[in-house]
Model the fold of this input.
Amino acid sequence: MTEHTNKQFSAELENVRSSFLQMGGLVEAMIGEAMNVLVNKEVTLADTVHDREKEVNRLEVEIDERIGLLIARNQPTAVDLRLLLSVSKMLTDMERCGDEADKIAKMARRMHEAGGQYIPAVELRHISTQVTNMIRNVLDAFAREDPIHAATVVRNDKEVDKEWKASLRHLITYMMEDPRTISRSIDLIFIARSLERIGDHAKNMAERVIYMVHGDDVRHIGVKATERVARGEPLVKQGD
Done:
């Protein structure tokens, strides 16, 4: 590359990075707003979440097209190529997080508009806080190229899975004790499932950050092995 071309390529790489962070910020806001629809009955926020979801979709397409052009025109290698490939994969996970937030907002609005007895959703508030933190932390790890910080997100997904199972047991108990709560409990189970899926997508993105920095694919190798790779130790493909 000439010096001019190299500077232009670097600027375009930075544009991809900043656009992805912008997309992530929108998704993080969507999760909080969707939970406000559920917990605080702010049903008008469902429209805000839906509008943001359209913007997230637009950014996904725009950034992906930009990545394709950058690879075709510049044929990047090593770290630059890993960055572009990682963002391309992370775009899908981030867009799906936005889809799940939109689902939560729509379902919560429908529940409130239908009226009836309200079932406490303490576990769901806790899960939503956890997955929002996971999204924030994976964006931070990506921005700082920090694989160790990314590995904490992978570990946090285990806690989200535990919370999801606990909330499922709790809601099933509600249904057994009072059949009038069945419909509403089922809606809350679907909301809890959406939150758990957001955690899964955050974990996927964290794994891509580790790949971006070290070049090692840490999918399906277990949390402890992922943490070793994040620290720069040799990859050992064993489960926990």
